[in-house]
Design brief:
Radius of gyration: 14 Å
Oligomer: single chain
Shape: globular
Strand order of the largest sheet: 2-1-6-5-4-3
Number of helices: 3
Order of helices and strands: HHEEHEEEE
Largest sheet: 6 strands, mixed
């Protein structure tokens, strides 16, 4: 699911992202800012922040019960307020589900710049 989310971010598929983001979703960006589900989706809709490409170099998942954690590294090309930026980031995503019959939802995402 992690790869699909990155694909939807690049394709700006807001409706698809909205369905997989938990109602209490929070994203912590590499610049230190945080946004909750509605704010993050609104930012993507506005066009002031676009994912131009995401190339994952490595990732790994750990699942325990109804929680999954995905960690990875990759190259993220983004446009912020018209300025193109290429970043190498490490990231962590936290997924949750109510039970084994319910779909996974993204609860949190965090990205950090790799120097």
């Amino acid at each position: 699911m992690s790869g699909q989310i990155f694909k939807w971010e690049v394709e700006n598929k807001i409706d698809s992202l909205s369905t997989v983001f938990h109602e209490k979703f929070v994203v912590l960006s590499s610049d230190g800012s945080s946004q909750f589900k509605t704010g993050y989706l609104d930012r993507l809709k506005s066009g002031t922040f676009n994912h131009d490409s995401i190339d994952v170099d490595e990732n790994a998942a750990t699942v325990t019960g109804n929680t999954a954690i995905v960690t990875g590294k990759g190259k993220f090309a983004v446009t912020v307020s018209g300025n193109k930026v290429a970043l190498r980031l490490s990231y962590i995503e936290v997924f949750t589900r109510e039970n084994a019959k319910k779909p996974w939802k993204v609860l949190a995402m965090k990205a950090s710049i790799i120097q």
